[in-house]
Write a structure and sequence with these properties.
With 326 residues, the chain is mainly β. Helices cover 7% and strands 28% of the residues. The strands form three sheets. Strands 1, 3, 4, 6, 11, 12, 13 and 17 form an eight-stranded antiparallel sheet that branches. Strands 2-5-14-7-8-9-10 form a seven-stranded antiparallel sheet, with no helix packed on it. The protein has a two-stranded antiparallel ribbon with strand order 15-16. The longest helix has 11 residues.
């Protein structure tokens, strides 16, 4: 194990917090432990498995669906599920689920009980997103953030694979000289079961790292991580490096692009959907959990689900139930 990883283990054993100064946003969906969650406008949906997550009424009323545990205030909302508030599901719906990838987060040992879920019976069009105008971030505003070094982590499980499925995305148009219809960022599963990270820069260049096909199957949990240090773009699946692009040049910070209104609010970060030509698409039907975005290129031993040697030293190997190949 590298010295950096060993130092991290020592810090964790001494009692590190859930999020560090390097964490820009962290959505756990275990908001039952957050006393500040606010269900306003009569939308009194309890944080519990099977209950719908609060929605934003199409960006007209702010309601928090998932707390940002980084402390920056980049909370998530969902787009809209049903105007009867819980009596059924409409066209865009998400709910809390007890189906989770790990019972404890390996890096921190914190209990994990809930994930975000969308299935076909809940409507056609899942849409979870940031909305800074509603959440009023008190720290780093994710929607204006343009980092050159970054890490995006997520756990996911698909219950269907049809085409492109964006696990984490960023909205916007006209951000690339090569692909004007593409959004600034996609962390996704592609046709054939490949995983990919693709992003466009403030220099209007597009970079991607794409795995071989067949890496992902339905009904299995996976941990996906994309890392950029400004020169190298790396993609990991279940702690294994599956794709890498070396030699990025110029200003390689993530771009924002253009757009304001309708489906497209440039800079918005999304979970469970992407954007193409200013419209929503590439939906995820399944579960998403433990999504963390960091402002530095993390070493694999710093991932929420780190390399096996780190888990062993932390003493969590026997305590953490990885429900991936059941």
């Amino acid at each position: 194990m590298c010295k950096k990883c060993l130092l991290i283990v020592v810090v964790l054993l001494l009692g590190a917090s859930v999020a560090s100064a390097k964490t820009v946003a962290y959505w756990r969906f275990d908001d039952m432990y957050n006393p500040t969650i606010d269900f306003s406008e009569g939308h009194a949906t309890a944080v519990a498995a099977g209950n719908p997550m609060p929605d934003s009424d199409g960006r007209s009323v702010w309601r928090k669906a998932a707390h940002d545990w980084s402390g920056n205030g980049n909370d998530l909302t969902t787009f809209e599920y049903d105007d009867t508030w819980g009596n059924g599901y409409g066209w865009a719906s998400d709910r809390w689920s007890s189906d989770v990838p790990v019972s404890q987060v390996p890096l921190t040992g914190i209990e994990n009980k809930l994930s975000m879920e969308h299935t076909a019976d809940m409507g056609c069009c899942p849409a979870a997103m940031t909305w800074s105008a509603g959440s009023n971030p008190s720290g780093v505003d994710l929607e204006t953030w343009t980092p050159s070094a970054w890490t995006i982590e997520a756990s996911f499980k698909l219950n269907e694979m049809s085409a492109f499925h964006t696990i984490v995305g960023r909205d916007g148009i006209n951000v690339s000289d090569v692909h004007s219809m593409k959004a600034p960022l996609y962390l996704s599963v592609r046709p054939g079961g490949a995983v990919a990270i693709e992003f466009s820069t403030v220099d209007r260049q597009t970079y991607e790292a794409v795995s071989d096909a067949g890496k992902v199957k339905t009904d299995q949990w996976y941990a996906i991580v994309a890392v950029s240090d400004g020169e190298t773009l790396s993609l990991y699946l279940d702690k294994i490096l599956v794709a890498q692009t070396i030699g990025m040049t110029g200003a390689t910070s993530i771009g924002i692009g253009e757009g304001a209104g309708g489906d497209n609010w440039a800079g918005t970060w999304t979970l469970g959907r992407g954007m193409w030509n200013g419209g929503h698409g590439d939906r995820v039907f399944g579960n998403i959990d433990e999504v963390r975005i960091s402002d530095t290129a993390l070493d694999p031993c710093q991932f929420l689900i780190p390399e096996p040697a780190t888990i062993l030293i932390l003493g969590l190997g026997g305590l953490t139930l990885l429900r991936k190949r059941s």
